[in-house]
Automatic annotation (TrEMBL):
Annotated organism of origin: Limosilactobacillus antri DSM 16041
Keyword Methyltransferase: no
Keywords, sorted A to Z: Hydrolase
One GO MF term attached to the UniProt entry: hydrolase activity
Protein name per UniProt: Esterase lipase
Residue ranges constituting the BD-FAE-like domain according to the UniProt record: 48-244
Top-rank taxon, per record: Bacteria
Pfam family, one: BD-FAE
Keyword match Manganese: no
């Protein structure tokens, strides 16, 4: 069979840059230096001044293990919808305690903003998105614009601010997440993150709680959580939503019926359409 067909170009082609070093941090027992990496899914160059909004993705793993590439195949839909998607490696709690993870996240944002021309990125439309422990990072980025105490490393001449936050079943208050979980299998992750049990260290717990920082600089939030989450209680996302709306921060909360922690339901086209619509409304 031989056919000649006319194929219209209805979407961009995509490149994927891997192993981009965005920061160097202390390595083995503080005696060496190690790289932190990004993977960037970006669009074919257009030869003009077209810019794309950026979604920074922070994978979960209980702050115990991270893989910045693990969900990128699922997020290609968002790249085809017109976004640059950046998978961010951040240090786990075996290497650094909080706020090291937030410092890494902000360093990644600064790197992309400093290199916006290289990636055709729009530096005024940056989105923090993540799941579970990565959802906690997304929330922390969304509430700490202007908090210079978390800016460490290179590119300090540019801002680490984001313009929207999209946490998926993210940890909010480490203490309430630990106490409200339906299982105690993961209680140790909060001690590892903070360096102490959250109930025994209220100041450390407060410092790692996004609710602490909600103010006039807090960005719009789109929150997802499942009704059957046994790891991070849905009540924590409901409390985050309530606190945001009480302080007049634009926020939407979608509770997915029957969804468990890290459920495939969160990766469906219906969810991505909600994300696209929310970002279209709030990224002006």
């Amino acid at each position: 069979m031989k056919k000649t067909i006319d194929v219209p170009a209805v979407r961009d082609g995509l490149w994927m840059d891997t192993d981009i070093t965005y920061a160097q941090v202390p390595g083995w027992l503080g005696n060496t230096t190690r790289d932190l990496k990004l993977t960037v899914i970006r669009h074919f160059q257009t030869g003009d001044d077209k810019r794309y909004p950026v979604i920074f993705w922070f994978a979960g793993g209980g702050w115990m293990d991270t893989d910045n590439n693990v969900h990128l195949p699922d997020l290609v839909d968002l790249a085809h919808a017109g976004y640059i998607v950046v998978g961010v490696e951040y240090r786990d709690s075996n290497k650094v305690q909080f706020p090291g993870q937030l410092e890494d996240a902000k360093a990644a944002v600064r790197y992309l903003r400093a290199n916006a021309d290289r990636f055709q990125a729009d530096p005024d439309r940056f989105v923090a998105m993540g799941e579970s422990a990565g959802g906690h990072l997304a929330s922390m980025l969304g509430v700490t614009n202007g908090h210079k105490e978390f800016d460490r490393g290179a590119h300090l001449d540019v801002s680490s601010a984001v313009q929207a936050a999209v946490p998926f079943y993210g940890v909010v208050d480490p203490l309430s997440a630990k106490q409200g979980s339906a299982t105690n299998d993961f209680d140790f992750v909060y001690r590892n993150l903070l360096g102490a049990e959250p109930e025994a260290a209220p100041e450390l717990d407060r410092a790692a709680n996004p609710l602490t920082y909600i103010d006039q600089n807090t960005v719009p939030f789109l929150i997802f959580h499942g009704t059957e989450d046994k790891v991070v209680p849905v009540q924590d996302s409901e409390r985050l939503y309530d606190e945001l709306t009480e302080k007049h921060v634009p926020a939407d909360l979608y509770v997915l019926k029957g969804a468990e922690h890290m459920d495939v339901k969160f990766l469906q086209p219906q969810v991505f359409k909600i994300i696209e619509d929310f970002l279209a409304e709030h990224l002006k």
